[in-house]
User: What shape does this take?
Amino acid sequence: MTHHHHHDHDHDHDHEIESTLTFDEKMIKLLEHWVKHNDDHAETYRDWAKKAKENHMDEAGSLILDAAEMTLAISKKFEEAARIIRG
Assistant: This one.
């Protein structure tokens, strides 16, 4: 099975602008990126959990759904960390 993994970001950016960011600003940008990334994965996990259940794989579907919820819980930690950094 081939796995295609697309991320909505690239690495073609201006390092000069990046270097003007404070450490706090860099951390917030990184945390926001991680939240988006995790939320995208959680949505995919939920879709596949539903498909698994539709194909009589209830236990596997439930575990995948649990993974989606765990992923969202991680995002909440990142959001809280960003909130603390923002003050």
The helical segments are 15-18, 23-54, 58-86.
